[in-house]
Structure to design on (822 residues):
């Protein structure tokens, strides 16, 4: 059997008839150059989903979840038909497949279903007829019902197909040339990464460099499926390869490889907590049981023997979390619960960091030199994060990016 | 089991969010007043299909038929989701179904498939849960492929569902209040028909009063399914009931009940045909084998013993038919083949006509009084048609409508 490549094109990549023709060219060139079997996953065209939602909102703001999937899944169906026509027009054999035709079975949940299984028999049969297959992203079927996958859905469709078909790799075409060392809207001169590990990508993705959805990266990591992030505007550019280990590919001793800014943070504090053993566990156990997800946590004991516990949550969940925390404060005899919605998280990410002393202090110095106050710190093997005031967020990113000379990365 | 009613709403009836809400009200009122199980069939919203085709034409003018069905079937899917949301928003239980979810199986042909079978098990189960079902018109499934039904598709879906579900009747909502005695764009004061027979409706539909597609009327006639044509803008109006026999419902002795104008006509003549037995059969046999459909036929023998045969064909097929006819003329030793694209067919229709002498002469007199020259005449049990010059078409309709006082019909 020929090698299989899966390519995914996002909404802006197929945003117009012109763009669809350009994407058809990319598909055909890949097929020719790589002499491979090709499966192409597409999202809905540009603003289609928003247009459908606008129309819907004139009818209801609280749609039935099943009907919402019925509505939104049409967007990808339009894209697959048009892209297939464009490929055929250029003289290549192609066929479109909806989620259900492609055998993509999800759990029986609407709006955010996870893929359970892909029955690849039909796809393999069609590939054996040398057809380029164009599959609708974001959608599947469960018990004869159309389901959608929610955020990052099309990326996930592509990775899941690549895994199920044992593809050589999965190309994710987007509107950036590569994964950069930071957000180009913040940092003027960013570096460009030729390779990145799944873990680094996950940290950068979940921290706000929204190139790839964490969900698809997690799936790729689990099955060790190489992803290539590239631009459908500059397809000759090789983009960034996301793989398991980047050791030996990182030039020199560079350890920090990206700086991310997460604006969706809010800080909660519970003050005057009685200093008893197990009290932190009790607080976070209560929060978990009330379905509040916590990110950075800091606990400090003051001289008078009482304790303050600070942590961050997603900003959109902050008000609800505050209410729950106030109840918990009463229960455990703490003084007060406070909420600050004007914080952000700035993070330096790099797989080699753990082996290199001095990274943290260099980062803190860079922030200090700019007069930026660090409210909270958290670290993982490949990341150091600081919670700072929202107003300082972009300056913090620039300072760290500059301190580690990340603009020099041109791998 | 409760009685079942099927309602169908065309593209303009669901052309905007406002219209969709109005249609939801009609559905709910029917459900309440008739205490019935309700199945609703909808077309794509207003210009959706044209918009999709415009987008497509930027890519190709010769789309693959399968991909065209993939593209166009999204239009109805959007409508069913939105109408279902609107019905739910008004507090009623509802569920949308695509063609394949509704069990509508067609022959394995794209763009103009005929419905083979409707597996009603799922629909009946959902109806038993007291849900209003909203089904995508115009589409079905064949061998796991999405198919569309072509022209008049949504009407046909509605009638086929009504037949399969043994519905009490099928309501076809459109943008006219009722079937009129002629086209209101031609005749200022038209009469309004409360009842019409399938055969009359077929004559009027195929003759250009484009309220119902002949295909759906034929199916309704075959299974004797009552159709009610009504307006979604004036749902309180009872519209026109299309049934098998209207005897006894026609007031007085009125026999002509409608006048139609068919502009899609072209006249072909083959001149100087040798007067041999069987020559007409030979001409039309040849035409049929070349796939030319013929409508009105007139043959006349002139004094010199040669024969002229005149007939009409659809105007869009006229050029091709002319070429074929020229070949046939050579074969049989006729002089010449001529084409006139500037003719139209005006027809008086009425189920009671056959029993009433003098109808034809009254019609010819009406035309003669206006100085309109009749080129060809054809009759059936319920119709008299005259071929006239295109420029005389509208005047001919008015003259006949007036001669039979059809504006007085207000059943």
């Amino acid at each position: 059997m020929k090698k299989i490549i899966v390519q995914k094109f996002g909404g802006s990549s197929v945003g117009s008839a012109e763009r669809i023709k350009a994407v058809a060219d990319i598909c055909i060139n890949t097929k020719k150059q790589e002499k491979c079997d090709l499966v192409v996953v597409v999202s809905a065209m540009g603003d289609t989903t928003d247009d459908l939602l606008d129309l819907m909102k004139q009818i209801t703001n609280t749609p039935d979840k099943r009907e919402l999937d019925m509505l939104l899944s049409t967007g990808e169906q339009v894209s697959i038909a048009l892209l297939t026509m464009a490929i055929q027009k250029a003289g290549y054999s192609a066929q479109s497949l909806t989620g259900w035709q492609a055998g993509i079975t999800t759990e029986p949940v609407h709006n955010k279903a996870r893929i359970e299984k892909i029955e690849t028999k039909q796809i393999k049969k069609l590939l054996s007829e040398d057809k380029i297959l164009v599959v609708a992203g974001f959608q599947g079927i469960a018990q004869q019902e159309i389901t959608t996958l929610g955020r990052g859905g099309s990326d996930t469709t592509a990775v899941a197909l690549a895994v199920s078909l044992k593809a050589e790799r999965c190309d994710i075409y987007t509107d950036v040339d590569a994964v950069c060392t930071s957000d180009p809207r913040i940092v003027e001169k960013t570096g460009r990464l030729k390779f990145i590990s799944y873990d680094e990508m996950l940290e950068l993705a979940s921290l706000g460099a929204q190139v790839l959805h964490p969900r698809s990266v997690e799936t790729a990591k689990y099955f060790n499926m190489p992803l290539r992030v590239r631009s459908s505007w500059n397809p000759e550019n090789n983009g960034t390869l996301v793989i398991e280990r980047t050791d030996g590919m990182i030039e020199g001793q560079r350890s920090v490889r990206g700086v991310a800014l997460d604006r969706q943070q809010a800080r909660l504090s519970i003050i005057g907590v009685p200093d008893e053993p197990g009290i932190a566990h009790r607080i976070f156990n209560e929060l978990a049981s009330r379905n509040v997800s916590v990110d950075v946590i800091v606990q400090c004991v003051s001289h008078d023997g009482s304790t303050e516990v600070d942590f961050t949550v997603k900003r959109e969940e902050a008000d609800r979390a505050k209410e729950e925390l106030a109840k918990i404060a009463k229960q455990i005899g703490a003084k007060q619960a406070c909420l600050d919605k004007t914080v952000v998280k700035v993070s330096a990410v790099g797989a080699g960091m753990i082996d290199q002393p001095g990274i943290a202090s260099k980062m803190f110095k860079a922030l200090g030199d700019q007069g930026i106050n660090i409210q909270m710190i958290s670290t993982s093997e490949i990341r150091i994060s600081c919670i700072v005031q929202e107003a300082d967020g972009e300056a913090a990113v620039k300072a760290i990016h500059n301190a580690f000379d990340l603009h020099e990365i041109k791998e």
In short: Chain A has two domains: 4-243, 258-404. The two ends of chain A are 34 Å apart (CA to CA).
